[in-house]
Structures are given as C-alpha cells and as structure tokens.
Amino acid sequence: MSNRLPRARPPAAAAPLPPPAAARSPAVAPPTDSDATKESGGVIAVTRALQLLEAFALGESHLSLALLSRRCGLHKTTVLRLARTLALSGYMVQRDDGEWRLGPAAGWLGARYQAGFDVQNVLEPALRALTQASGESAAFYVREGNVRTCLVRVEGPQALRHHARMGEGLPLDKGSPGRVILAFSGEPGDVYEEIRRRGYHCSIGEREQGVATVSAPVFGMHWRLLGSVCISGPASRLPMAKLETLAQTVVTAANALSYALAGNTSATSAVPARASHWHP
C-alpha cells in the first residue's frame, strides 16, 4: 500500500463575479416629455399641429392631405393623425371629398383673442372714422414678442388698395407701423429719435414693394404703449408728399383712440370715451 497522499485537484473555475453596480448597463428609462421636445423646449407634436393650422393661406377654404403634407414638410400619415386629433376638438374638419378645412374652434380662438382688445366698441369705429377721413384703408397693429400683428383692419373705399392679412406676424423694423412701435418702446437710433420727435412715421416700399403707409402710436393709461394705427395704400396714389399731408389726420385719430382706450373723458370726441380691457 502506498503512503503517498492523493494529489489535490485544482479548484474549479469560479463563476465570474457580477460587475459593480456603477459598471452595469443602465436600465432603459421610460420616455419622458423631454423626449418629444425640440431644442427650443417646444413639444414637437404641438408644434406640428400648429403648422397644420398655419398652412391655410388667406382665402383658402380647404386643402388636400397631400398639400398639407408638402407645406408642413411632414409625412402624410403624420399629417392625417394630427388632423384627426385636431378634429376631435373642432379645430379642423374633414369634408366629404376628403379634404380638410379649419373648424369652428379656430374661429372662436381668434374671436377670443380679439375680444381682449375691445375691438367692437372702440377700435373698429375709430378705424372706420379714419378710413372715411383719409379715403384709405386703416389698421391697428400690436406687438407680439418680436413681431407686429394686424389686429383690426377696415378697408378703404378705393377699388385699388393694399390688402393685409389679419393675425400674420410681420417684422417690426420694416414698415411704418412696426417702426412706430419700436420708436415708442424706446428703441435707440437716429431713425427712432426722429420718429419720436415727429410723432409719426411714413414709409414707401419698406416692407412690401409699391405699398405706402403712415402710422402713429396709440397709448393707454399711464402712457403705456398699446400699438400703432396706420393708413395704407398703393404708392402710386400715396407719394411721400401725400403721406405727409395725411400724417396729421392719422395722429389725430391715434390721439382720439388713445383717450378712448384709456377711458379719459377729456378727449374731444363725438363718441363717449370708455375704458378698454387689454391683455397684459
């Protein structure tokens, strides 16, 4: 019998230890709202839905799915899904022929926006009076961020006239309505100093070729700038000399409108002044 001890077997290979918690692959997190946002912070689905509403040009009552897709730069299936969602709330309506039009909720939204500016009681009558006095179309512009928007417009009696799209965002630094808003918002520069000194501004072809305008500022209580009032027409009928002649008519209308919107009864006006309700 051998006295030799049995040779020890090598230990079995140990199972690999799990990696430290810090080295493990992170679990997939559920999607959050930030996954559906643009770099600007806007929700992509909402932005795309608004694109659909903005795709309709002035005078277009309905658009095909293909045209909506091209104008928005979105796939047809995406457009269809968004349109059907908007239709649930009445912002879009699908016609019997398959094309789409804006729904009644879109109109109510615009009406609610205008209601905040006392349109019916103050602005429209004042613009109508200015149109009669000048013989040209009159409009009232307000500032919305970095653009100006035509809130109310009254067409002039002339067959040939300038047409503006209400609600469209236009540049502040092109055209007399925007220049006046900038000037009386404190914009620095010689151009704006001159506008503040004169109290109005005339422009021809500055934003749109062949269009002439003259504008003046409108204020509310405590001299808070509310917007600008202007008359506009073709440059062929409104050369600079004519604009300068009409400037005082526009300034007078702007002053009367300022008194009316501020509810100041000291203004000389045939219509009793009343306070206006404006959004902040």
What does this structure look like?
With 280 residues, this protein is an alpha+beta fold. The protein contains eight helices and eight strands; from the N terminus they run H-H-H-E-E-H-H-E-E-E-H-H-E-E-E-H. The strands form two sheets. The protein has a six-stranded antiparallel sheet, with helices on both faces. A two-stranded antiparallel sheet has the order 1-2. The termini are far apart.
In terms of topology, how is this protein built?
Blueprint: H1 44-54, H2 65-72, H3 76-88, E1 92-94, E2 100-102, H4 104-115, H5 119-134, E3 137-144, E4 147-154, E5 169-171, H6 176-183, H7 190-198, E6 201-204, E7 211-219, E8 225-234, H8 240-262
Antiparallel strand pairs: 1-2, 3-4, 3-8, 4-5, 6-7, 7-8
Helix pairs in contact: 1-3, 2-3, 5-8, 6-7
For the biggest sheet, the summary is: 6 strands, antiparallel
* Count of DSSP-assigned helices: 8
Distance between the termini: 107 Å
Helix and strand composition category = alpha+beta
Summarize the structure.
With 280 residues, the protein is of the alpha+beta class. The chain has eight helices and eight strands, in the order H-H-H-E-E-H-H-E-E-E-H-H-E-E-E-H. It has a six-stranded antiparallel sheet with strand order 5-4-3-8-7-6, sandwiched between helices. It has a two-stranded antiparallel ribbon with strand order 1-2.
